[in-house]
Amino acid sequence: MSERRVPVTLNLATPAAGRRGKPPRHFADLTPEERVAAVTEAGEKPFRAKQLAQHYYGHLTSDPALMTDLPAATRDSLTETLFPPLLRASRTLKADGGTTVKTLWHLFDDAKVESVLMQYPNRSTLCVSSQAGCGMACPFCATGQLGLTRNLSTAEIVEQVRAASRSLVDGEIPGGSGRLNNLVFMGMGEPLANYKAVMGTIRQLIAPVPDGMGMSARNITVSTVGLVPAMRKLSGEGLPLTLALSLHAPDDELRSELVPINTRWSVDETLDAAKEYHTITGRRVSIEYALIRDMNDHAWRADLLGKKLNARGRGWVHVNPIPLNPTPGSIWTASDPAVEAEFVARLRGHGIPTTIRDTRGSDIDGACGQLAAEEEDE
């Protein structure tokens, strides 16, 4: 069967943050030293910063009514100054018996982002957004078709994590673990295109309570479509994060159509940067591969991918084929199960560890960007 060809245009223009304005300063945007300075400027004693951090990161709240160890007047003034509302839940959809929860958030300027919380028998995972929209223009991706609105601030990303963590603590998710175990930057946006805010978020999340949430860096995954210089920069951060490379095709001709950034950094350049990440960090890299019917799911492409990965060594990579979660009205759809099985078998035949990604939330517009796109249409 012939392959479909759809021309796409990559738009790496500066996001429209200037037109929308900058998010108000939030406690989660500040370093511990800056928090002390902020409470001092507000006329309070420096130790109030540690108290506020304990409430925010330890108890996952910014509600002044719950800060009973602070004087009432202090609670109200400090929270008003340092905890401005950044996210407002517009829609919340549930699937899988309530264990998958997708939330559409409106930001302070009415920009829209989505997050998805997934509870499994022994763990919980949150998929967060790092940008409102995305400038990478991948044609099969709902977010890519929205275009880029702006980067999120550190606090806007942290607030997605805090909200999800709080819902687990409050028992709102069936089988909730009480604490968030895993975080993946696989929501709306290209995380490495908002590098400073993403790294600021990660460093806050892994800092011990009360300076942060005390998460393990090993349980945080950062995805990218292949921004090679940023991948190399991430290698030098000294953190055992998991890098997930959204590859989607092993050959430049097709990948340049599916992932337009490939016209800047080729498949081989991108895989070299991924292998370099493993060499420096010791962390196995995940290759994400959305299987699209009659487009990139051919057995010969599985063979080519296996050969390219093995050419860079053994044991450094794991491939996650992902059945495409199609968007309404799109020509893109998931591969036939038999084709999917053959693709996986070919990769495993090359000795590549391969696991079909568990997909959730297809009945609630699970692909990131769908809810935001629907609301824009409305």
UniProtKB/TrEMBL annotation:
Residues of the signal peptide: none
InterPro entries xref list: Aldolase_TIM, Methyltransferase_A, RlmN_N, RNA_MTrfase_RlmN, rRNA_lsu_MTrfase_RlmN/Cfr, rSAM, rSAM_sf
Organism of provenance: Flavimobilis soli
EC number: 2.1.1.192
Cofactor(s) the protein needs: [4Fe-4S] cluster
Limits of the Radical SAM core domain: 120-363
Primary subcellular site in the record, as a coarse category: cytoplasm
GO cellular component, one term: cytoplasm
Localization: Cytoplasm
Family: Belongs to the radical SAM superfamily. RlmN family.
UniProt remark on cofactor binding: Binds 1 [4Fe-4S] cluster. The cluster is coordinated with 3 cysteines and an exchangeable S-adenosyl-L-methionine.
Annotated protein name in UniProt: Probable dual-specificity RNA methyltransferase RlmN
UniProt-listed SUPFAM superfamilies: Radical SAM enzymes
PANTHER family according to UniProt: 23S RRNA METHYLTRANSFERASE (PTHR30544), RADICAL SAM CORE DOMAIN-CONTAINING PROTEIN (PTHR30544:SF5)
Amino acids binding [4Fe-4S] cluster: C134, C138, C141
A Pfam family that the UniProt record links to this protein: RlmN_N
Binding site for S-adenosyl-L-methionine: G189, E190, S223, S246, L247, H248, N325
